[in-house]
Design brief:
Chain B: InterPro entries: Trm112, Trm112-like. Chain B: This is Multifunctional methyltransferase subunit TRM112-like protein. Chain B: Belongs to the TRM112 family. Chain B: It comes from Loxostege sticticalis. Chain B: Keywords: Cytoplasm, Nucleus. The complex is a heterodimer of chains A (276) and B (125). Chain A has nine helices and eight strands. Chain A has 276 residues and is α/β, with parallel strands linked by helices. The longest helix of chain A has 18 residues. Chain A has two domains: 206 residues, Rossmann fold, CATH 3.40.50.150; 38 residues, no CATH class. Chain B is of the alpha+beta class and 125 residues long. Chain B has a single domain, classed as Single Sheet (N-terminal domain of TfIIb). In chain B, 29% of the residues lie in helices and 20% in strands. Chain B contains four helices and four strands. In chain B, strand 2 and strand 3 form a beta hairpin. Classes of the chains: A alpha/beta (276), B alpha+beta (125). Chains A and B meet through helix 5, strand 3 and helix 6 of A and helix 1, helix 2 and strand 4 of B. The structure holds S-adenosylmethionine (SAM).
Chain lengths: 276, 125
């Protein structure tokens, strides 16, 4: 039998009260989710020393959200499982919660988030749990509404568990169609256990993908898949190429320069205070 | 549901709805919880808000008292203003009630502090 929960039942059924409690109390899960959330935040490249408003997609019981809080940011979480959200409430996380299905679109106003993260949730979108579910359409609905909800030059970073290459292609193609630039970064590609997939999506101009962890400088290019570095045509009526574009690219470039120093400063100067 | 979330939330995912904003609030239970004050965050988020919508929302649930009708100039340096914004944005929470889409009249229940934005199959785009 498949070990993938998304093959067993729809998410709102799989993550029932029992599973939600088990999930949230398992210290191994807590650790792993925390580590992956830290990496997502790192890949978001938020402006240094500022408190941002982030969207946590598939926030569940708020394990990822707790890490967002520790880093001094405020979050709004979207999840399809009422039981997971109930546990998040019980844990008194500081983020705010919304019950919703990302495949129906992200129900937020244009430009409101400084960034979005998603930890271990995106793979659920490959499922068709109802007759009316068409994964390609749900992915596009999701990415296009997410794109709109992000402020200019904000990023979205997803840690997820793809099943095969074609899923990676499907994801990136729908994200590009929705106006994003980016691709998949694979950390520790040669380790069965530590290998992790991150979809890094950028708005407001193309930039190089971040470097993957656990790779040699020389074979790094192999670990970054489907990087779309050229401007994709057909941004679908989104105000991508307005007169501010050059400014945004300039900003992106500056950010890139700042990034060079990142490895040394990974945990230095990180904001731990200023909780909400 | 905090009012910062309400300020961002729309019903535009419903087929045929254009902006779905702002959602009207009907609250039967509102609570106030203390949240750490973070002027940094407030200064960053206030320019992104629809302040008029915040003002109307706060008043519609009985927490608009003393809240300025517009964002004050140099609000970043105005602690009194920031504290008021802090309270309505982050401390006031709608526990029970419902939201109403301004275009379709569709109601979204809020229960245990969580708005339910799930759509029916027929409503999905
Ligand atoms: C493995 S949990 C991760 C939760 C949290 N991010 C963490 O790191 O602990 C995956 C979550 O994705 C949610 N999910 C799955 N499909 C979803 C959908 N279509 N819309 C919103 N959330 C979804 C599930 O309900 C579940 O809470």
């Amino acid at each position: 039998m498949s070990k993938r929960p998304e093959h067993l039942a729809p998410p709102e059924v799989f993550y029932n009260a029992d599973e939600a409690r088990k999930y949230t109390q398992n210290s191994r899960i807590i650790d792993i989710q925390a580590q992956m959330t830290e990496r997502c935040l790192e890949l978001l490249l938020l402006p240094e020393d500022s408190s941002c408003l982030l969207l946590d997609i598939g926030c569940g019981s708020g394990l990822s959200g707790s890490v967002v809080e520790e880093n001094g940011h405020m979050w709004i979480g979207l999840d399809i499982s009422p039981d997971m959200l109930d546990v998040a409430k019980e844990r008194e996380t500081e983020g705010d919660l919304v019950l919703g299905d990302m495949g129906e679109g992200v129900p937020f106003r244009a430009g409101c988030f400084d960034g979005a993260i998603s930890v271990s949730a995106l793979q659920w979108l490959f499922n068709a749990d109802k007759k009316s579910h068409k994964p390609v359409k749900r992915l596009y609905n999701f990415f296009s509404s997410l794109y709109a909800s992000l402020s200019r030059s904000a990023r979205a970073v997803f840690q997820f568990y793809p099943e095969n290459e074609s899923q990676l292609e499907l994801l990136t193609s729908q994200a590009m169609k929705a106006g994003f630039y980016g691709g998949v970064v694979i950390d520790y590609p040669n380790s069965a256990k530590a290998k992790k997939f991150f979809l890094v999506l950028m708005t407001g101009g193309a930039g190089p993908l971040p470097k993957a962890l656990g790779t040699d400088e020389t074979d790094n290019s192999l670990q970054v898949k489907y990087a779309k570095r050229e401007a994709t045509k057909g941004a679908r009526g989104k105000p991508l190429k307005n007169t501010r574009a050059w400014l945004l690219e300039k900003k992106e470039r500056r950010r890139k320069q700042g990034k060079e120093t990142k490895p040394d400063t990974k945990y230095t100067g990180r904001k731990r205070s200023g909780r909400f | 549901m905090k009012l910062i979330t309400h300020n961002m939330l729309t019903s535009k995912c419903i087929k045929g709805v254009l902006t779905g904003y702002p959602l009207a609030i009907n609250a039967t239970d509102v609570k106030v919880t203390e949240v750490d004050y973070n002027p940094d965050f407030l200064s960053r988020v206030i320019p992104k808000l629809d302040w008029e919508v915040l003002w109307t929302a706060a008043n519609s649930i009985g927490h608009g008292e003393g809240l300025p009708k517009a964002v004050e100039p140099k609000f970043e340096e105005n602690e009194e203003f920031l504290k008021k914004a802090h309270k309505v944005l982050l401390e006031v929470e709608v526990e029970e009630g419902y939201l109403t889409c301004p275009e379709s009249g569709r109601q979204f229940p809020i229960s245990k502090g969580i708005p339910n934005m799930l759509l029916t199959e027929a409503e999905v785009q």
